[in-house]
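=== Structure Prediction Worksheet ===
Name of assembly: unnamed complex
Input type: mixed (protein and possibly other molecules)
Chain count: two
Listed entries:
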Amino acid sequence: MTLDLDVFDRVGAAVAVLDITGVRAHGDLRALRVERANARCLALHEARTLAELQAELPEALADAATLVPHLQDGLRGGERAIELDTTLRSLRGTTLHLALVLSPLEWLGDRAIVVLTAHDRSRAVQLAAELDQANERRHVLLEGIPDVVVEVGADGNCLSFAGPIDRMQIKPRIGTHVRDVMPPQLGEVVLAHIDLVKAHVVHAFELAHGERWYEARMVAAPHGGTFTVLRDTTERRRAAQQLQESELRFRIMADGAPVLLWMSGTDGLCHFFNKGWLEFTGRTIEQEYGNGWAEGVYAEDFQRCMTTYLEAFVARVAFRMEYRLRRHDGQYRWVLDTGTPRITPDGVFAGYIGSCIDITELKALHEELDQRVQSRTVELTAAVAELEAFCYSISHDLRAPLRGIDGFSQAVLEDCEGKLDGRSVDHLKRVRAAAQRMGRLIDDLLKLSRFARAEIHVREVDLAALAQMIVKELQDLEPERQVRVVIPDTLVAHGDATLLRAVLENLIGNAWKFTRKTEVPVIEIGAETAGGKRAYFVRDNGVGFNMEHAGALFAPFQRLHHERDFPGTGIGLASTQRIILRHGGRIWVDASEGAGACFRWTLPGRPRPERGDT
Amino acid sequence: MRKVILLVEDNDDDVALTHRAFEKHRLANEIVVATDGQQALDFLFGEEPLGPTVVLLDLNLPKLSGLDVLRRIRGDKRTELLPVVVLTSSDHDRDVIESYRLGANSFVRKPVDFLEFVEAARQLGLYWLMLNEPPKRRSDV
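=== Predicted Assembly ===
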């Protein structure tokens, strides 16, 4: 049997004729003999000669262990050909992936003459491995993304699934029609779009599924089917909606606000004006954009305005400025503009937001008030000066005639001593007494007006020390009187020392006077806190008075007792009240007829609590 | 030495009462009365200067006020050391302060009670006319 094996070289096949014996007996290919081999077969095995191939091939084929049972089966059943893919090592140690075909020419008991045809499969094997790797990568990639991916073949049956398909109730059944793996509604939508995909290559749309929203992207696959990618956009949609709502809320608020609102970006340029602003200026938002708004600022105010704005902008601090802005009717109105830096929740500076209000009327009012205050002050100053002049002339001009009345009455009394009867002497004495009383009235009136005008120098004053001094003076004038006086160690108040001394002189003087007829006179001076306010007091157990008559007690010339019993001009309490009022305080009295009186007064300021007083 | 009092006073009643008060104590040999400020200056700086021992000066005067008279007295070498007692109805703080600032030696408010005035006059006369050692006049040196 002659066969020119080299013919096969031309068709790219490696061919050898093998004489295989003893496979059944030995269970291996030890007795295999290479009868002949073509050049490609030698080349494949990297053998240079047939002898080399003969030496190595049985061992190399023995490695392909699967070959033995095939051969055994073949010998038993007389099969026509054995095909198998196997690997074997070449002479140089490289691994060969081969597709082998063993075609028996003759079966002779335990011996077979076989034609071996071998094709190198290495390239195919490599490609398959690469394909596997690519598939693996695709799988991992698809599992890694949060989208659902469904691969559908041209026939509508599903080829693969990836992503969180459970969440969409998609059953991962490969080979099942898409309509049967997806929930009905979803399946219909996807099916309805498959034709469109073929036309557009990529087709995207949004769809609702259950309570969630998805963005579907359908891509034509090379195999004629489609990839459907479903992305859950519910959160994004919700966030966008919330943003839209808050934007809308802001617009409604901004447009409804009775102020002019503006907003600028990090570049300092304005990109928002509310309805109020646009209605005020009568311009369009396009005209106002950027620095357009500044065209409406009064020329004289422009530089100051821009400097304030830009300086604040650089320092990123809030600012307030007043400037004149042109209204739609061409009139320039004063506005108060308050700007605040906008900081995002992440702490990033985003520009400014500001609001303006029309303060033209307010400013005019302010100016008018200022003027009014000024003119009133001038008037008041004039009035005070006039009053002062009046008081001055009273002290001069009213007292001079009184001196005449008193002096000449006394002259008559002296010069006519013994010539006047008792009645006339009494009358002249009454004239003198009346003149002197009027002198005192004038003096007290002057004091009253002086207290009303005196400047008040507030400082810390110890009322206890003042009271001690006053009591001593009273005692010196009437050493025979025995009065128990209770005064704390210290009694701190805040006020004008001179005026507060006058207050105490009046009140303690009254207490001294009105306890004249009391058996055991007691005068108490102190302070107490009532209703959170500190009140000072002078209390006596003198004659007191009926509270029904207390109404006009603090008015000048009001007296509750007869001059004969308790002399006085009736101006002391009026002066006292005036002093307390001028200190911003209040004075009031509690009394009852025959049981004494208690005068209490407050002084504002913050007197510190003292030891020893209640 | 003859002791003259210059009384500067525009009110007749006050002049009469002052006379009476000083007479009571026989303190003054002579009281010369000027009824306005200008007349007072004429007496002090005229051709025959009066050279009083003390001046009793009212403040509220026609033509030239008492304070103006005081200012002129203190501004003149001849009278800069002359004792001046301001005797007035006013006890206005401003008048008191201004009087002392201009160099008044004393400030007395005329009381309504004549007996009090008599007492004041007695004390004034006693002090300024009897006890006080007046400065030597330049012409005497």
